[in-house]
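Lab meeting minutes (informal)
Scribe: AK
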Amino acid sequence: MAKGSRPRTPRKGKLGVHSEGGKKKRYMSRKELEEQVFGTNLRHYSPVVGFNDRLTRPIAPVLQTAGRGTVHQRKMERLRGEIKKRDEVVPFRARQLNRGLLEHTMGVAHVAPKDLTVPETPNITRVVRSEAKPDTPEYQFQARPLYVMDTPEVQRSDAPLTVPHPFELETDNRGESARERKRIMQQERERLAEKQARFVARPMVVGQSILPEVETRPPTKEEPFQLESVDRHYAKLDTFRGHVAEEEAQAEKARHFHARPVSAAVAAPFVPAKSGKKTTHTADVRLATEVRSQERQSYDEKRRQREQREREAAEQEQARQAALEEERLAQARKALEFKAKPAPKARAPAPIEKSHKKTTKAYTPRVARRSKMAKHKASP
């Protein structure tokens, strides 16, 4: 036996025939399953109470074509809308011409000068008014009265006297340090400003230097010019004067009376004559209303036939469901009826024949543990 290995326990050997107590799995028939379900749920298969046999009545659809008008009605509605829009339009009316433009020499209306606007002192109420504050009495400090004792208290001579030490608040030093920083920054700014303002000449070039020749140029002379706005002003003024002259000429021409010629006296008199055009004959016209009426009739007929088929199919389905329900109810009631089991019939027992199979013999399994123990015993 190897060192460190655990001893093995021999297991029970398997015989040649292995069975589960000779029991076979039993399967239930459809009838037994229905009896089991009907017996556990009797309420579901009880007679139907309050069953109302009604058919669903289809509702005729509301088509969008029913609300449409004829072609003539749509044309009349469109014409009425156009007439209404035309009546709502405000007629154009030109403004009257200012006679001052025609009568003035330059054609510019006279504008009367207006007086200058003199500002008045605003009556502003100050937010803080010292005179509106009531006189407050001066604050008077009142010290607390000393505690009067019947017997004076003797001061201890051995206790040390309290010596006050001077101290400084942090807020006092904070303000002083801020002022010191401001003073230093102001001195630095003044020093930089003085340094920038002080002129420092560049050092003189030592040695021979070549100076560039300065080119003498003539002085700049001012040339006369004229602004484009002045030209536009005179051009606009000339155009305006031309319009004024044209309007004056038209007004002068309108003052003279000119009678209109009589057309009846000049033109030839009207003589009626027979027309050579052929008479208009109306052709066969098929109105759109007639076409729609025929289409509507065919559609209504198809819809009626379809509804009739659906109604018959619904009635057949309802009859089939009712028959199926009656059949199920009859089966359930039949299953609930009590029936005694029939008495067993006395019959001869089935003959028992001898099997041709050999008898099963059990044998001891060969386990490695037993072989090792036998070897151990056999060894001296």
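Next up, CB showed the second protein from the same session:
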Amino acid sequence: MRLLIVSLFFMGIIMAIIGYYRANSECPLQKTKYKFIPRTLEEEQASNTSVYAIFKGMFEDQAPKDKM
């Protein structure tokens, strides 16, 4: 009984050492993380966006019902 316990103890130690060695020997590739950083109100006001450029298509393009 004592021999069984000692042999299981040593097997456990050996398996732990092998697992530790395998975990530290390989460097896994780092996954790229993309984060969205919203613009602040100050940045929105400072940016020079033309209202005409944004809504130009709304007034100059044909309406879908006119295209038929």
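CB comment: The chain has a mean pLDDT of 84.
No objections, moving on.
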